[in-house]
Amino acid sequence: MKTSEIRAFRRLARRLHRQTGGLLWGRACVSGVTVAQGHVLLELEDMGEATVKELASALRVDKSTTSRTVDALVARGLVRKTTDTEDRRCLVLTLSRTGRGKVTEIDAMGDGNARRIFRIIPRERRRDIVECLRLLVEAGDHVEEEDQDEEAREKT
Questions:
Q1: 3-state SS, residue 48
Q2: pLDDT tens-digit profile of 61-89?
Q3: Phi, psi of 82 (to 5 degrees)
Q4: Distance between CA atoms of 140 and 148, rounded to whole angstroms?
Q5: Interaxial angle between packed helices 3-24 and 97-120, expressed in degrees from 0 to 180 and rounded to the nearest 10
Q6: What is the residue extent of each domain of the chain?
């Protein structure tokens, strides 16, 4: 692939990132939830329950950042920490009822904004867009796994 094509892809990816960030937030926060907190809430909803380590891995951020974000959400009553019944040293994170309500608010706003964008895209192309994004995300996951494997090899 030519450098000019790579640069065009990167430029478009940056714009898409900024635009789709706006699909969720539009501002620095939604209903008093920061962008980082919103990502934790949405991921935790998808996962059902998780440890801080699992959540950090899913979000692709370090454990200490995730822990601070989770602590703020616990303090606000949006996330619960409970001791794992099988391993008492392990804390399990779940959404509280209030946290689930906040996720519903975030989803409603994000869904509405996404619908506005998809209205502009011809109906027969919408599935193509979703498929293209799926392929990009899967390729990105593959590259991240390769990077993690390489880091692990370097440590040994």
A1: coil
A2: 999 999 999 999 999 999 999 987 777 78
A3: -130, 155
A4: 12
A5: 130
A6: 3-120, 124-156
Classify residue 41 as exposed, middle or buried by CB count within 10 Å of its CB (0-12, 13-18, 19+): buried
From residue 7, alpha-carbon distances to 10, 20, 118 in Å are: 5, 20, 25
Bridge-based pairing of strands 29-30 and 33-34 is antiparallel
pTM equals 0.81
- Taking the CA of residue 56 as centre, how many other CA atoms within 13 Å lie in the half-sphere pointing to its CB? 13
Residue 141 amino acid letter: D
* 98 vs 142: CA distance, rounded Å: 35
CATH 1.10.10.10 for domain 3-120, yes or no, is: yes
Amino acid at 148: Q
pLDDT, tens digit, 9 for 90 and up, residues 97-140: 999 999 999 888 888 888 888 999 999 999 999 999 999 999 98
Tokens of 133: 């994004």
Lowest mean pLDDT among 14-23, 120-129, 133-142, 144-153: 14-23
